């Protein structure tokens, strides 16, 4: 059987990205808004570009890109005739998690709004402790903690964006 993967260089990365984006759009249209949100398809446009970008130097990104090509195509074909099953959605979400984790660990990328999420939660718990220590009233410290968390988190998010590190 003819194997596309053995024909490296036969397909330009750029063409593959365009094809993949087209599959993604088609999938979005086919499954409807609710399922598209469940599949986090909004993220995928950026993920595709990142994988393509790193593919030149990263074997794993190259593999994920290959996987994504067959995976998205399969989902599009499936969505044409019937609804995606919960099992398929689960497989897709696992794939998203694997790719995201690789991009974070190997390429130091962060999801959009990553730091604000972390520091807001951290700020709230610190605020509660402060409220207890300073005012003998935990909830009183909460707005202070939240403000701190938002300030630090949004600063770090803005910095990551400036450095092109947002996924
Ligand atoms: Zn990689």
TrEMBL record:
Alphabetically ordered keywords of this record: Membrane, Transmembrane, Transmembrane helix
A Pfam family that the UniProt record links to this protein: Gly_zipper
UniProt keyword Transmembrane helix, yes or no: yes
All residue ranges annotated as the Glycine zipper-like domain in the record: 116-155
Transmembrane segments: 114-135
Protein name: Glycine zipper-like domain-containing protein
Organism (species): Salinimicrobium profundisediminis
Origin organism lineage: Bacteria, Pseudomonadati, Bacteroidota, Flavobacteriia, Flavobacteriales
């Amino acid at each position: 059987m003819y194997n596309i993967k053995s024909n490296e260089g036969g397909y330009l990365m750029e063409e593959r990205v365009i094809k993949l984006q087209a599959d993604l759009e088609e999938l979005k249209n086919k499954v409807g808004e609710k399922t598209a949100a469940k599949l986090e398809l909004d993220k995928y446009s950026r993920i595709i570009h990142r994988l393509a970008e790193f593919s030149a130097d990263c074997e794993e990104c190259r593999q994920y890109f290959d996987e994504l090509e067959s995976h998205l195509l399969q989902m599009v074909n499936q969505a044409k005739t019937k609804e995606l099953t919960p099992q398929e959605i689960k497989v897709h979400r696992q794939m998203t998690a694997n790719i995201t984790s690789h991009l974070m660990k190997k390429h130091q990328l962060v999801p959009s709004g990553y730091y604000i999420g972390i520091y807001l939660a951290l700020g709230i718990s610190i605020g509660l402790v402060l409220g207890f220590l300073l005012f003998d009233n935990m909830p009183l410290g909460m707005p202070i903690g939240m403000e701190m968390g938002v300030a630090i988190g949004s600063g770090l998010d803005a910095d990551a964006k400036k450095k092109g590190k947002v996924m």
